[in-house]
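Long-time lurker, finally posting.

We've been working with Pseudouridine synthase I TruA alpha/beta domain-containing protein (Gibberella moniliformis) and I want a structural starting point before designing mutants. I don't trust myself to interpret raw outputs, so I'm hoping someone here can both generate the C-alpha cells and explain anything notable. Sequence follows.
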Amino acid sequence: MRPFSRCLGRQTSLEGIASRAKTPKVSQSKPQLKKSSSGESPKLPVQPQGTKHLAMSAESNYQSWTKNGLIQKVKELEAELRNRPAPEPKPVPEIQPENEEGDEAKKTKPKGKRKMDPSKYSTRFIALKLAYLGKNYGGFEFQAMANAPSIEEELWNALTKACLIFPEDERIVDFDCCEYSKCGRTDKGVSAFGQVIGLRVRSNRPLPKEQRRLSEAGEAMVVDEKLGENAEEEPVEDTPPFDDIKDELQYPRLLNRVLPPDIRILAWCPSPPPDFSARFSCRERQYRYFFTQPAFTPEPSARGARNGWLDIEAMREAAKRYEGEHDFRNFCKIDPGKQITNFVRTIYEAEIEEVKDVSSALPYVSGSTYVPAGGLPSDGTVYPKVYSFNVRGSAFLWHQIRHMVAVLFLAGQKLEAPDVVTTLLDVKANPCKPNYVMADEVPLVLWDCIFPGTDSTPVDPAAKKTDGLDWVYLADDPALSKPGPFGVMDGMWAYWRERKLDELLSNQLLQMVSTQRSKDPSRHVTRPEPSGKQANSVVVYEGGNGGRMGGRYVPLLQKVKLQSPEEQNERYAIRKGYTSSEDMRNQKGIGKRKADEAMDE
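Top reply, 14 upvotes:
Generated this for you. Predicted structure of Pseudouridine synthase I TruA alpha/beta domain-containing protein:
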C-alpha cells in the first residue's frame, strides 16, 4: 500500500495570502521552537519570494476547473473585494496580552472543512462498476467549458468529497494523481449499466511503517515510565489481520451518498489483475439499443398505415450480416485528429430481441386504420412492443453502434434491402461512406464490459463470456442494496417511480385523445388519400421520439459520398502544418494501441 504523499504539493490559497498581507506586523522576533526527540531542530517552512505570483499564474488557467470550483473561486474574489482595506493608512493596533490574543483568536477562527493528511493513509488500486442515465449529461468524459456536466466531473466531485483521492487542487479535474483508466467513452446522452473504471483510492488498511513507528514510540515511553517504577515490561499486542473486503471502506456506499441519483456505483473489485487497464484490458463490450414497435405513431389510412411500423424480420436479417470481422469505415464517424488507419473490428454477435414485460398498452394502434397493410398477429399481443438491438464486440469505432442501428431502421422501414449491410461492408467497392444520418443517442446503453480473469486457458473469442473480475456487488450486503434509507434500491425506486408516473399519465392522455370523436357522423371529415409528391414523401425513423420528414427517399448508394478516411487524415494533417498524414502520426507518436484500438462510442 502506498500513501498519497507523492501526489501532493504545497499550496497557498489566495485568501490566506490576502489575510497575511492585511495583518500588521507587531513583532519581528522569531518564534522559539522546541527540539525533537532526535535532537534536530524543526525547520520553519520558508515561502520564497514570488510565490504569490506563481500561485496566481498557475490558477489563471480555468479550462479544467469544475463548475463548483469556479463558483467557489468567484465567491472568494467577491469576499476579497468586500474585505479589501480602504486606501487610507490605518494605525497599528495595540499589542494585546498573550492570553487575550489567544482567546480572541479562538473566537474568530473560522470553521471550515477539516482536511485529511493523505500521508497517514494507505492506498489500494481497485476497479469500480457504475451505471448512469446519460440523458442529462454531456457524455462520460470531462470536457472543459462544456454546456452540460459530464459523468467524470460528477465522479471527481464525489471522489474528492469522500476524500478517496487527494489531488493538489480538487477544483481542477485531473485524474493523473490516482492511476485512472476508463473502459468506454460514451457520448452525450448515452447511458451505461456496466461502465468500468480503475483507480487508486484511500484504504482503511493501516500503514505498516506508521504502525511500527507509533508502536516503538509508545513502547519506549511505557518502558521508561515503568523502569522508573521498577515494573516489568508488558508485551505489545500484534496487529489483527486485515480483511480486504470486510475491514475495507465501503466504496459504493461512500460514493452513492454524494453522487446524483442517476449515477450509481454497483460493485467494486478489490484485486484487479496486475497491469490492469479498464480500457485496454477489456476483451468484450456489450451494447443495447432500444426501440418500440411501432417506432412512432402510425399514420391512419384506409389501406393500412404507411409509416411507423417496422419489419422486425428484415432487421434481424440485416443485423446478422454485421457478425464477423469487417472493415466498418462506412459505419462510423471519422475523427482526423486521431489519424486512425485501422477500421477493422470484430462483432461476436448482433441480434434483434424482444424485451419482455416492459410494454405499455395503447389499444388504438391495433385499430383497423392504424395496423400495417399486412395486418397484425391475432394472438392477443399488446402493442406497442419494445425491442433491442444487442451487439457484442471487442472494440468499436466512434459512433459505430448508432450508424449500424440507422441502417437497420432503413431496412426495417423497407427503404433499403437487408443486403445493403453487406454492400457497405465491401470497402473495396465502396471506399467512401454515404452521407446518411446516424441514429439518436438516448436509446443507446453500454450494457456491460467483460474482462479476463487470472485463468490463462484460451477461450473462443466469439463465445459468450463471463466477467473474470471478482466483483463485490451491493447485493452482497443487504443493508446496501435492499430498500431502506441507505439502500441503493430505495433511491432507484424513487427515481423510477417518478418517471413511471410521467409515462402512466402520458399513456392515459394519449389513449383518451385517440378515442375522442363526435357522436354526430355528419361532423366526420373524410379526406382523400395522398397522391403525387405527397404520396412519395416518406417519414424516416432515426431512433428518436418521432419520424423525420424526408421527402422523396434517396437510396444509400445514391447519396453524396464523403471523403475516404485516408483523404480526411491527409487533409487534416496538412492543415495542421505537417507534410502528410504519416508525418503527423510519426511526430505525435500515434501508434496502433493508442489510436487504432480506441473505444469511442
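Before you design anything, note these points.
Residues 283-450+537-558 form a domain with the Alpha-Beta Plaits fold (CATH 3.30.70.660).
The first strand starts at residue 123 and ends at 132.
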